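Priority: low. Protein: Phenylalanine--tRNA ligase beta subunit. Input follows.
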Amino acid sequence: MLVSLEWLKDYVSTQDLAPEVLAEKITRSGIEVDAVIDRASGMDKVVVGHVVSKEKHPEADKLNICQVDVGEAEPQQIICGAPNVDVGQKVIVARPGAHLPGGIKIKKAKLRGHESNGMICSLQELGIEGKLVPKAYAEGIYVLPADAEPGSDALALLGLRDTVLELGLTPNRSDALSMLGVAYEVGAILSEEVKYPEISYKTSSEKAEDVLKLRVEDLQANPMYVAKVVKNVKITESPMWLQHRLMAAGVRPHNNVVDVTNYVLMEYGQPLHAFDYDSLATGEIVIRKATEGETITTLDDQERTLKASDLVITNGKEPVAIAGIMGGANSEVTEKTTTVVIESAYFDGLTVRQTSRDLGLRSDASARFEKGVDPNRVVPAAERAAALLAELAGGEVLEGTCIVDELDKTPARVVVSPDFINERLGMKISLEEMLTILDRLKFDVEAANGLLIIDVPTRRQDIKIEEDIVEEIARLHGYDEIPMTLPEGAQVGRLTPYQEKRRVVRNFMEGAGLYQAVTYSLTSESLSQRFALKTEPVTRLLMPMSEDRSTLRQSLVPHLIEAAAYNVARKADSVALYEVGSVFLGQSAEGQPVEEEHVAAVLTGKWVDHAWQGEHKAVDFFVLKGIVEGLVGKLGLGERLSFVKAEVDGLHPGRTASILLDGEKVGIIGGLHPAEQKAWGVKDTYVMEMNLVALLAASANEAPLGYTPVPRFPAMSRDIALVLDRATAAGEVVSVIRAANVKLLKDIRIFDVYEGEKMEAGKKSVAFSLTYFDPERTLTDEEVVAAHNKVLKAIATIEGTEVR
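Result:
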C-alpha cells in the first residue's frame, strides 16, 4: 500500500512530523513501513513553461525549435523532440542547472547548431514509472492545465512535493488498504481525530429505480449490492490533482469516470465499478452464478471461460462483469458514454478467491474482497463516487439508490478482562490506559463487572478474539515498553531423532568432500520425472513464473546436474555436490502434494588431484559407490545394503545400479549416458539419489552403537578365486557367503576381477579375500579350514561357478 502524506492529511493531522519520524511510529505500532519515498528527491529548477512558438529544426526532421515563456523577461529557446509538443501548451521545463532523477543534470547545449536552454520534460523524466503515465502522454511530454502560471514550481503543481510511505501489510490488516484505514491507524498512534470527506450533490427528479431494475439470485455470495445512476456525464481527463494522487498510489489514470472509481477504492477501500448504462441495453442488472462454460471478454481483452461456481454480474441475459474481479469489455465506459451505473457491493471473499484462482486473474478489487471489506462503507463509497462524478464529470445523479441488502453489519463483540490482558503481556497496564487506547482506536467499549465489553468497528475484521485485543493494547502501549523476562521452567529444546540423523547425513556428505547445494523445487514438466526413483502424476502450478519453473520435481538429480554443468561451463573442472531436499509425488487425500525427503549427489571431473605427488584420480562409479556405502554404514545399515545392476533412462547401461536395503529399492546410482553428458555439456559424470525417509526409518530401529575393544588375537585370511558367468554379479556371491552364516567369518573383500583373453568366453574370474577371526582366542588351522569349507560349500550352490 502506497500512502501519499499530502493526501493522508485530508483525513487526519500528522502533527507536521517529519516523514521518517511518522514512519518509525507506524512501524513500531505494528505496520511495517518498507520505504519512505520523497517524490521530488534530488530535483530542482523545474518550472512551468508556456510554448509561445514552434518551428521545425532545419537540420533534424524530428526536432522542433520552441520559444518558451518560463516567467522571465524573454522567452527561452528550447529544442524538443516530443511528437506532441505544440504552441499554446503549458509544459514542464527543466532549466539549465536543474537536476533530474537518474543523476541527470540539465545544461545549455547546442543541438545541430541551434542553442537549447533547458528541456521540456515528460513525466517519466521526473521519475514517474511509465506504467502510471496516462496513455495520452505515454510517448511524449505532459501537458499542464491552461491556468498554470509560467515560471511557477512545476513539482508542486504536479503534487511531487510529497512523500509516499510504502506499507508492508500483512494479510490480516486489510483495513489499512485504504487512505481512511491508514488515517485511523495514524489517528490512533497520534491521538488525532479522523475526518471523513464531505459528500454533497444535487439529485434530479428522476428516480434511479425507474431506469434500473436490480435482482440478486445468490444472496450468500452477494448479500449486498448498491447501484447509483448518473446521467449526462462528460468523459474527459480527470483534473490534475486527481491524476497525481492516483499515480502516487500506484494507479494509472484513464478518464474522469474510471479515475473516480479508483480514487474511491483507494480512499475507502471499497471496490467500485462503472458500467455504461446504454451498453447494458436492458436497463437491468442481475447477479447470478455463471452457467458452466459461459464466456466473457474482460477489460483486458481476454476471453474467459467461466465455471458454475463463478459469480457474475449480468444485464439479465449475458455477463457484463465477473463479480468482485473485473468488468466486461461489453459494458466498458468509453468516450461515448453519457450515463453511468456505479456498482458498490459486498461479495463473499471465498467465492471471489476461488474464481480469481481458477481464472488466473487478480485485481485491486479481488485483493480487497478476498481479505474482507467494511460492510458499512458499501453505501458511503457509492455516494462519494456519485458526488465526485457530479463535480468532475458534470453528471446528474438520479434520486435514490437501487439496493439489495441482506448483509449483517453487526459489529463483532469481544469481552475480555484487564487481568487477562496483563497476564498475557507480563506487565501492569492500568484500566484507564486500556480505555484510552481503545478510545484512540475508535472501539466502542464499556467497563462493567471487571470486564471490558468491546464492540469492534466493522472496518477491523481482523479483531475476533480476546488475544486480538491484547495485541492492540500492546502495540499502542508500545512494544518497547513490554519488560524483558526470562522464561520459567527448565525445558531444553532439542532435535527430533529424524533431525539428528539427517544432520549425520549432511555431516558425512560434507566430510566426504561434497558441497551442499540447494536447488529449486520447481522445474520444467519434461525434467520433473527424470531419474525419479518412482513416478506419480505431476503437480503443476496454476500460475507459473515460467515453463522452466512450472512443475514440482520428483527427483533431485536434474537440478544437481544443472548446477554441475553451470560450474563446469565456468571453468570448474571438478564438481562434487549433494542435496538433501523434498520431492513431490502425486497428491494426498487432502489434495496436497506428498513430500518425501531424498538425498542425492553428483560428481564430475577429478576426485583426487595432488599435483605435487603426481597423484590424479578421475571420478568413477566406485568413488560414488564408496560414498554411498560409507553413508549407509554411518547409519548402521551397512550389512543390509546391496547393489543390483539396473537400467535407468538417461544413465549408462553398464554403469548403473539400484541401491537396495533389505532387498527393497531405496535409490539409484550410475553414470550419465554419453548422449546425456553431451546434452548437459559435461564429461564423465556420476549421480546418486536415495530415499532418505526410508533410510532413516530403518536406521531408527538399529541398536545404539557400542564400544568394541581393540583385538588381542590375530585374524587369519584365505583368498579364493572363482570362475563365474559374466552375468553373475560379485555382490550375489557375497550375499550367498553371508547367508551361509559362518560365525568365524568377519570380512569379505573383492580384490581382483579378470576378463581377459585367457578366460573362457562368457566367463570372468573374481578373487575374494576372506578374513576369519575370534575375539576370545587364537584360531587353529583346523577351525579355519572347517569354516572355509562351509564357505566353499555355499559357493558351490551358485550355478555356473567353479573354484580356480
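The mean pLDDT is 93. Residues 378-392 form the longest helix (15 residues).
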